[in-house]
From TrEMBL:
Pfam families: DUF1996 (PF09362). It comes from Podospora didyma. Residues 35-272 form the DUF1996 domain. It comes from the Eukaryota. Residues 1-19 form the signal peptide. This is DUF1996 domain-containing protein.
Length: 333
C-alpha cells in the first residue's frame, strides 16, 4: 500500500479510536556538511545534508548530554515545542558538462507553500503509542544502497514525480526518468516498533523494527509513532531537454554520489519539550492533509513566517551555489 492510502486509512478511523495524524511544516534550518548521528564530531562529514527543526543542531549531539529542548532557542517547525532535528541528503542536478547544481527544497504546496524550503513532518499512530525518550535517535535507509531490493527493505523510501501538487501515484524507489512538472517529492518513513530500552544502537537502526502482521515483534515490543518526512525538491528549473543527458538517462544525483536514488535515507533526533509529543498523540490530533490546519490545540504553534526566521549559518564553509566542478565532500562519482 502506498503511504497516502495509509494516511487515508488512518484518517478514516472512527473518532474515539486512538489515532493521531500530526502534519506540520519545518522550514530549512541549514544546509551543512554535518551528521551528528553517523559521523559525530566530524566537521565536515562525508556528504551534504538539508536539516530542519531546532537550532541546537550541531556536529556532535550526544544522546545523554545534549538536550535539544533546553539548548535550542528557536525551531523552524510550526509546532514550537518541537526542537527535534530531521534531515535528509541533498539533491543535485548533473549537467552534460559534468558540473553539479544544488536543487533547492520548496514549501509543501498543500498548505505550506510560504515555508522557506525544508520538509513536511508527520507523526502517525493507530492504537496507543509511546512517544520517544530524550536522546532518542534513528536513521532509515542507507546511502550505500544501489538496488531496488535494498531500497525495498524499508517501505516508502520513495519518489513521487509531481505533475501537480496532489499527484499521489507512480511512486518509485529510484529517480524518475521523466520531467516532474510540479517538482519531485521524496518520502522517508521510519519503523514503528522500539526495543523499549535503547535510545540508539551501533547502526542507529536495530533498536527499532517494523511490525510483523501489524504487531510489534517481541524483540521490539513498544509501539512508537511513525515519523514520516515529505521533502519537495524544486526540480522545475531543470525541466529542459537541452540540459538532460542525450542518452535518455536521468540527471539527478544525491549528495553522496548516488545517481540511482536507491540510497534515499533519513535521520531523526527526538527533541520535543517535556511531554508535548505524548500529549498530542494522546489527544488524537488529526491535522488536515491538504491545508495548514494542524488541528492540535494542546500544542503551541507559530506562523510560517516566524518558522522561516529560525535558521543557522553552516559550520562548514564551502561554496554550495552555482555550477560546482564536484559534489561537496569525497563521495563524487
Ligand atoms: C556546537 O558545539 C560547540 C562545541 O561543543 C559549541 O561551542 C557551540 O556553541 C555549539 N553550537 C550550537 C549552535 O549549539
Ligand atoms: C556547464 O553546464 C551548465 C548547464 O548547461 C552551464 O550553465 C555551465 O556554464 C557549464 N559550465 C562550464 C564550465 O562549461
Amino acid at each position: 500500500m502506498h503511504w497516502s492510502q495509509l494516511l487515508l486509512a488512518a484518517a478514516a478511523l472512527a473518532p474515539g479510536a486512538n489515532s493521531a495524524q500530526l502534519r506540520f511544516s519545518c522550514a530549512q534550518l541549514v544546509v551543512d556538511r554535518l551528521d551528528p548521528i553517523v559521523n559525530p564530531g566530524a566537521i565536515p562529514s562525508p556528504h551534504l545534508h538539508q536539516i530542519v527543526g531546532g537550532n541546537a543542531f550541531n556536529a556532535s549531539m550526544d544522546s545523554t548530554a545534549h538536550d535539544l529542548a533546553s539548548t535550542a532557542t528557536c525551531t523552524s517547525c510550526v509546532f514550537t515545542e518541537d526542537f527535534s532535528n530531521y534531515w535528509t541528503a541533498v539533491l543535485f542536478f548533473k549537467a552534460r558538462n559534468g558540473t553539479y547544481k544544488r536543487v533547492p527544497t520548496m514549501g509543501n504546496p498543500l498548505g505550506y507553500q510560504a515555508s522557506q524550503g525544508g520538509q513536511t513532518v508527520y507523526y502517525l499512530s493507530s492504537g496507543k503509542v509511546t512517544a520517544f525518550k530524550p536522546g532518542f535517535r534513528m536513521t532509515v535507509g542507507s546511502p550505500t544502497y544501489r538496488t531496488q531490493a535494498e531500497a525495498k527493505k524499508n517501505p516508502a523510501l520513495q519518489f513521487t514525480c509531481l505533475q501537480s501538487s496532489t499527484t499521489r501515484t507512480g511512486y518509485r524507489y529510484d529517480f524518475p526518468t521523466e520531467f516532474c512538472k510540479a517538482g519531485l517529492m521524496v518520502t522517508v518513513r521510519f519503523p514503528t516498533c522500539w526495543d523499549g530500552t535503547n535510545v540508539d544502537s551501533p547502526d542507529h537502526q536495530s533498536h527499532v523494527a517494523y511490525p510483523v502482521n501489524k504487531k510489534c515483534p517481541s524483540t521490539h515490543p513498544v509501539a512508537i509513532p511513525e515519523v514520516f518526512y515529505e521533502t519537495y525538491w524544486d526540480t522545475r528549473p531543470f525541466n529542459d531537454k537541452a540540459l538532460w543527458p542525450a542518452d535518455g538517462s536521468q540527471p539527478f544525483v544525491w549528495s553522496f554520489g548516488d545517481a540511482t536514488g536507491y540510497g534515499n535515507h533519513g535521520d531523526y533526533v527526538f527533541g520535543w519539550k517535556g511531554d508535548a509529543l505524548q500529549r498530542a498523540l494522546d489527544a488524537n490530533c488529526q491535522s488536515d492533509l491538504f491545508s495548514d490546519k494542524t488541528n492540535c490545540p494542546t500544542l503551541k504553534t507559530q506562523t510560517i513566517t516566524q518558522s522561516n526566521k529560525c535558521s543557522m549559518a553552516p559550520r562548514v564553509k564551502e561554496n554550495l551555489d552555482g555550477w560546482l566542478a564536484k559534489l561537496p565532500g569525497t563521495m563524487d562519482m
